[in-house]
Amino acid sequence: MNAAIIFGLLFGLMLTGMPVSISLGLTVLTFLFTMTQVPIESVALKLFTGIEKFEIMAIPFFIVAGNFLTHGGVARRMIAFASSMVGHWYGGLGLAAVMACALFAAVSGSSPATVVAIGSILLPAMVKQGFPVRFGTGVIASSGALGILIPPSIVMVMYAVSTNSSVGALFIAGIIPGAVLAGMLGFTTWWRARRGNYPRLARVPWGQRLRAFRESVWGLMLIVIVMGGIYTGIFTPTEAAAMSAVYAFLVAVFVYRDMPLSRVPKVLLDSANMSAMLLYIITNAVLFSFLLTYENIPQALAQWLVDTGLGPVGFLAVVNILLLLAGNIMEPTSIILITAPILFPVAMALGIDPIHFGVMITVNMEIGMITPPVGLNLYVASGIARLGMTETTIACLPWLITMLVFLVLITYWPALSLWLPRTLGMLG
Amino acid sequence: MMRVLDHLEEWLITFLIGAATLLIFTAVVHRYALGFAANWGLDATYDWLFQFNLGWAQELCIYMFVWMAKFGAAYGVRTGIHVGVDVLINNLRESFRAKVVLFGLLAGALFTGTVGTFGAEFVWRMSQTDSISPDLEVPVWIVYLAIPLGSYLMCFRFLQVAWSFWKTGDLPEHEHAHVEGLEEEVEKSQVGGTQEEVLIGEAFELTEEREHIHGGLSEADWEKQHPHAKRDEEGRP
């Protein structure tokens, strides 16, 4: 009963379009003031302690790192490298777009920004070469979502924080699925390009490839620093994030010289703006999940689901559908922070691995970026391609279907995500 | 007056995020330099480094980010970065939509105002005790001062945005897909600034390319011979 009231209130408030963080907070306050005798003091304390975890601080650092490297110059280098590597196959620039998006999204951390950065440079070139606009738009809008899965990923940190999982293990677990998904998107691109007989580029000699690689390697090293640092235990994930932020600053300002020193405060301000927004949602989501726990809702739900005999297979299917629906109207951070505390205990009760569960949720969030009506990538892509929303959505369909196939794969084949962290001994 | 507050806010959060980054960076470098000096028998360096105990860095970083988060959230109201679910309200009649938006903004002000008051009470009670933080050993109430200050500021920002929305009907909107320095790159990739949108300076020369792809035919001839290459544009799947 209380659960119904809490969620009814939350959805009611959210539908008025007020910030998700405010809806969460107001739900908690309203419920506490009118329905229960939870001492307000303990709530007040939660408000302050909600974000006092060192692990959470990885988020602002990754955002700083990402913002330094979310630069047109970095995008150009990644495109040059990608097209020199795969441009001569069927799909040409389309295939290069998938690879460039994967690389850029991995270092930039923002998937709409990836679509803009890669799209604005590559899409006109593709159209000029004779690719249909739809094809180019579809490739770029969907590949832009790859960054969420390929570490470092802020969405993964969110999941780890709200479920007390290991950030490091989650990052490592994302590597193989990220590569597989990039491969599958690439395959779809290749296959459609082959059927449509779209233009290809000339094979590029290895010397030129090496040069393109050397140009872009500074950006790519970011992933190596984070993953290497965490895996070898040199850094904690938060320290790795801070190191990558300083590294990204050095690369952007001194190595690539894309950014004058005078623009650094602006980048920091933008990063602070974004991080503060995320941290504010976290604070309120912590409050919300405290209320849920206090009312025993996750446990009751877990018990109920176990009793209905749904089993892991059915449960994962239900979770996927739920998250895909949520992905249609909300952005990833809010979805994870609201649903993870509820779904996680159930998943544990059914014996699902927390890391596998996290990777699966992350893939769902990726798909949410390209499903209407609120897929951010769709908006951005329709902007640069000057296509309507409906057309952009249709343009993304082949890749959307690919992603859904991948989602089924990742859901029911845990080894895909768990093999690497297990082999590296990162799972307890 | 307003201008000063705006700048102070921006300056504060910029400083906090930058300083926290440098702080953790320094702490990590320090830790490894210490280990390095010990391993290689650089005793003087070791002793010098050892004077600096950076054990408090982690705690300070957290506090800096808590302050950054509280004031940044207020700044975020001004820049419109706090997003909600607007699918429903965007499909409402304009006059009704305005009322709902205003309700949302005022609800934000109510929530942050309430939290600010909670925070103020909490800080007041803390200031009566002599509890101090574990590593830095500063009075806890000073650390938590961020909550009432930040929340009241945020409340003020909500009212400010609500007021200007009431007056002008405009809401601040955040650009989610901003990419620094992209214009220059796109311009660079177009030949001589003309409208010809062609990538240059990449690892390939397009003109040559097209001839290569089209087997030496001109663009028009190639299209005549390969009508299917363009079919997707005409709407066929």
How would you describe what is shown here?
- The complex is a heterodimer of chains A (428) and B (237).
- Chain A has 428 residues and is mostly helical.
- Chain A has helices spanning 2-15, 20-35, 40-49, 58-69, 72-86, 92-108, 111-129, 133-143, 154-163, 167-196, 206-232, 237-255, 264-294, 297-307, 311-329, 332-349, 354-368, 376-385, 389-412, 415-423.
- In chain A, helix 5 packs across helix 6 (92-108), helix 6 packs parallel to helix 8 (133-143) and helix 17 (354-368) packs antiparallel against helix 19.
- Chain A is globular.
- Chain B is mostly helical and 237 residues long.
- Chain B has nine helices and no strands.
- Chain B has helices spanning 2-39, 43-50, 57-79, 94-128, 140-144, 146-168, 182-188, 206-213, 219-225.
- In chain B, helix 1 packs antiparallel against helix 2 (43-50), helix 1 (2-39) packs antiparallel against helix 3 and helix 3 (57-79) runs parallel beside helix 6 (146-168).
- The longest helix of chain B has 38 residues, at 2-39.
- The radius of gyration of chain B is 29 Å and the shape is flat.
- The N and C termini of chain B lie far apart (60 Å).
- Mean pLDDT of chain B is 79; it is low at 191-211 and 229-237.
- Chains A and B meet through helix 1, helix 2, helix 3, helix 4 and helix 5 of A and helix 1, helix 3, helix 4, helix 7 and helix 8 of B.
Which descriptors apply to this entry?
heterodimer, A: 428 residues, mainly alpha, 79% helix, B: 237 residues, 9 helices, flat, disordered C terminus
Number of strands of chain A: 0
Strand content of chain B: under 5%
Helix and strand element order of chain A:
HHHHHHHHHHHHHHHHHHHH
Please name the two chains that share the biggest interface, counting residues whose Cβ lies under 8 Å from a Cβ on the partner chain. A-B, 108 and 93 residues
Structural category of chain A is mainly alpha
Instruction: Tell me, rounded to a whole number, the average pLDDT of chain A.
Output: 90
- Using only C-alpha atoms, the radius of gyration of chain B works out to 29 Å
Q: How many alpha or pi helices of chain A?
A: 20
The total count of strands of chain B amounts to 0
Helix share bin of chain A: over 70%
Low-confidence stretches of chain B: 191-211, 229-237
Main sheet specs of chain B: none
Beta strand % of chain A: under 5%
Question: What oligomeric state is this?
Answer: heterodimer
User: If you average the pLDDT of chain B, what whole number results?
Assistant: 79
Which structural class fits the helix and strand makeup of chain B? mainly alpha
Shape of chain B: flat
